[in-house]
Design goal:
Elements lengths: L8 H5 L4 H10 L5 H6 L3 H16 L5 H14 L5
Organism: Polynucleobacter kasalickyi
Protein name: Carboxymuconolactone decarboxylase-like domain-containing protein
InterPro entries: AhpD-like
Length: 81
């Protein structure tokens, strides 16, 4: 049984995370479920999202490493990626 209730998109959009959630919905990454769990701590959620965006979109992480990360995460989530 989960200890943390997942917040709805509407609940998240009523917070300062709205631009981040909208970005996730528009770009389909990261999964909005990330914010649904992390959104209970707004500052942590925002900081972690900004770290993710910086790592993945500023050339700081080699493309082959990003693909390995995507595959490992999809396997952990039992996704058919």
């Amino acid at each position: 049984m989960a200890n943390v209730r997942m917040l709805t998109i509407e609940e998240l959009q009523a917070t300062k995370l709205k631009p981040l959630v909208d970005y996730c919905l528009e770009n389909r990454a990261p999964d909005p479920g990330y914010h649904a769990v992390m959104g209970h701590n707004l500052d942590l959620s925002e900081t972690a999202f900004n770290a993710w965006r910086t790592a993945f979109f500023t050339g700081q992480v080699n493309h082959s490493i990003k693909e390995i990360i995507r595959v490992l995460l999809s396997r952990m989530a039992s996704c058919n990626y």
